Automatic annotation (TrEMBL):
Coiled coil: none annotated. Belongs to the GST superfamily. Pfam families: GST_C_3, GST_N. GO terms for molecular function: transferase activity. This is Glutathione S-transferase. Residues 112-244 form the GST C-terminal domain. Gene3D superfamilies: 1.20.1050.10, Glutaredoxin. It comes from the Eukaryota. Keywords: Transferase. The keyword Transferase applies. The keyword Transcription does not apply.
Length: 244
C-alpha cells in the first residue's frame, strides 16, 4: 500500500483491494466503465472489485478521494497489479487503459492503426462535444435553482446537433454505407467508442427530449437499441451498481 495514495480516511474496501478496483456511481460516465468491465468479464473472465459512492454527498471532494483523482470525479480505477498501485481518472482514459491492459486480443479495439484512430476520434468526439452539452441540459433542466430558458435552449440545441453528427455517420449519408457501430471498416465493430457514447445517448428521454425531436435520428435510435441488447451492457447499468 502506498502511504501517499491512501490515508486513514480511505475506505477499507478501497485501500485493501487487490487487482483492479473501481470507484463509481451509476451515472452515464460511471456506466461506461462498468459496461466495459462487464464486457471484459464475458470475453476474458476479467475480475475486479467495486466501491459505490454517492456523489450527492460530495465524498468525491474528500482528501482521500482527491489523492486518487485530483479532479474529484467518478469513476476512478485503481490497478493494484502495478507497483505502486496505478490510478486512472477520466472515463475515456480508463476505457483505453483497460483496452491496453485487459483486452489483449483487441476484441473491443482494433489492431489496424486507422481503425484504432477512428475509435479515438469518436470517443473524443463524445467526450468533448457530446457529454458536456447533454450534461448541461440535465443541469439546467433539472438541477439549477432557477430555470434559465436561454441556457436550456442552447444546450438542448447543441445536444441535438451532436446527435445529428452521430446520425450522419451511422446513416452513411456521405459514404453510401450505413454503419452499425461508430468505429471500424464497413459497418463497423462494437468498440470502446460505442461504450463511451451509449450511456449518455440512451438517456435522451430523461434529458427532456421528445420522441418527435429524436425521430429525425432513426439510425441513432437503432444503434441505441442494438447496443442495449448486449447482456454485459444491461449488467453494467444494472442493480449491482446501485448503492443501497
Amino acid at each position: 500500500m502506498s502511504n501517499q495514495l491512501y490515508t486513514e480516511e480511505t475506505p477499507a474496501d478501497v485501500k485493501n483491494a487487490k487487482g483492479l478496483h473501481l470507484i463509481t456511481q451509476n451515472t452515464p460516465n460511471g456506466q461506461a466503465v462498468q459496461i466495459f468491465l462487464e464486457e471484459l468479464k464475458d470475453a476474458y473472465g476479467t475480475e475486479w472489485t467495486t466501491t459505490l459512492i454517492d456523489i450527492s454527498t460530495n465524498v468525491q471532494k474528500s482528501d482521500w478521494f482527491l489523492r486518487l483523482d485530483p479532479n474529484g470525479r467518478i469513476p476512478v480505477i485503481i490497478d493494484n497489479t502495478q507497483s505502486p498501485p496505478f490510478t486512472v481518472h477520466e472515463t475515456s482514459a480508463e476505457l483505453f487503459y483497460l483496452l491496453k491492459f485487459a483486452d489483449k486480443e483487441d476484441k473491443f479495439g482494433f489492431k489496424d492503426d486507422l481503425e484504432r484512430n477512428q475509435a479515438l476520434q469518436w470517443t473524443f468526439f463524445w467526450h468533448g462535444s457530446g457529454a458536456p452539452y447533454q450534461g448541461q441540459v440535465n443541469h439546467f433542466s433539472r438541477a439549477a435553482p432557477e430555470k434559465i430558458p436561454y441556457a436550456i435552449t442552447r444546450f438542448k440545441n447543441e445536444t441535438l446537433r451532436v446527435y445529428g453528427v452521430l446520425e450522419i455517420h451511422l446513416s452513411g449519408k456521405y459514404t453510401g454505407e450505413t454503419k452499425e457501430y461508430l468505429a471500424g471498416k464497413g459497418k463497423g465493430k462494437y468498440s470502446v467508442a460505442d461504450v463511451k457514447t451509449w450511456p449518455w445517448v440512451k438517456n435522451w428521454e430523461k434529458s427532456g427530449f421528445t420522441k418527435e425531436e429524436v425521430s429525425v435520428f432513426p439510425h441513432l435510435l437503432k444503434w441505441i437499441d442494438r447496443i442495449a441488447e448486449r447482456p454485459a451492457v444491461q449488467r453494467g447499468i444494472g442493480e449491482a451498481y446501485v448503492k443501497k
